[in-house]
Write a structure and sequence with these properties.
Number of helices: 11
Radius of gyration: 21 Å
Order of helices and strands: HHHHHEEHEHEHEEHHEHEE
Strand order of the largest sheet: 5-4-3-6-7-9-8
Helix content: 25-40%
Strand content: 15-25%
Distance between the termini: 59 Å
């Protein structure tokens, strides 16, 4: 079977995929270790039995609904490649807005106080893509030397997620650069004793009733990182009269006051939320004395709430 023949076979298998051509291209590039141009130039090359078996297995997984990023264990985010598996959410393009805004705010803070080493917390870090992308971009832009780089604390309730965040930090940073990272397992700020100049967070914010609908396509993302209607004790949140909450805000209701108590003077919080509950998140923050601003994502949907 040639590469072109395999592409035809795979496209027939992935008729229900919203992006079969892209899925096939990414799988071919990853497992054959070839570029898009090389695949095109070698379309008549015969595949080995092992290559056919490997590629067929990947297509079968994609046909079942498993995202390509979990099949290749790789997802590009903010120009960097991150290891991912079903223990963490797949980094989404809309989250890059949070990274962009964070970088702008952090550079401004450092310029206004060049002698200070700033501290940053990435709460609910997952794959670590937010904190690591901020760190790498600040350093790679040559605007801030390593000696003046902020210190990052990456926090997650999941030990498996923390291990992946560590793996990504080790992959994308040198041993000397890794000294800027600290990892803590904690249920929000429960095990955190420090205050931070900047808190970055993409917490679970999906309403409970929407979570299973999102997972019906077999995407296999962790419910723990999606469902925003869970209490600090891991139970479904309820109203005072016993009705189950379904606005995706229970974790955020607990997180915002904790951010307030762990934020340094003149500190700032950047939080990703859903377009359907960003305004409610902003109001919760205002109730705790924050001044807020909401930024939109690539599709002009409300996405990032900034709290000062």
């Amino acid at each position: 079977m040639t590469i072109q023949e395999f592409k035809s076979y795979a496209k027939n298998q992935l008729q229900n995929s919203p992006s079969p051509d892209l899925d096939i291209q990414v799988i071919l590039e990853h497992f054959l270790k070839l570029s898009k141009t090389q695949i095109l130039l070698n379309k008549d090359k015969n595949l080995s039995e092992l290559e056919i078996a490997t590629l067929s297995d990947a297509i079968a997984k994609r046909k079942s609904g498993l995202p390509v990023a979990y099949i290749t264990n790789c997802k590009e985010f903010f120009g960097y490649d991150f290891f991912v598996n079903p223990d963490v959410l797949i980094p989404k393009p809309d989250t890059e807005i949070l990274v962009e805004k964070a970088i702008d705010f952090i550079i401004a803070k450092i310029e206004n106080n060049s002698d200070k080493i700033f501290t940053i917390c990435d709460m609910c870090t997952g794959s670590g893509c937010i904190a690591i992308s901020v760190f790498r971009t600040l350093l790679d832009s040559h605007k801030i030397p390593l000696s003046k780089m902020p210190k990052f604390t990456l926090v997650d309730i999941s030990e498996k997620a923390l291990q992946i965040a560590k793996k990504n930090a080790e992959s994308l940073c040198s041993k000397e650069e890794l000294c800027n990272f600290h990892f803590i397992k904690s249920n929000l700020f429960e095990n955190i004793q420090y205050s931070y100049d900047v808190i970055l967070t993409n917490p679970p914010y999906i309403p409970h009733s929407m979570v299973q609908k999102l997972l019906q396509d077999g995407r296999s993302e962790p419910v723990l990182a999606l469902d925003g209607d869970i209490t600090l004790f891991g139970e479904r949140a309820k109203t005072a009269d016993g009705k189950e909450k379904d606005d995706g805000l229970e974790i955020i209701r607990n997180l915002i006051p904790q951010c307030k108590s762990h934020l340094s003077p003149m500190g700032i919080v950047l939080m990703e939320t859903g377009e359907y509950n960003a305004e409610e998140t902003s109001q919760i923050a205002k109730n705790y004395g924050f001044k807020t601003e909401i930024f939109t994502d690539l599709e002009n949907q409300l996405r990032v709430v900034v709290m000062e």
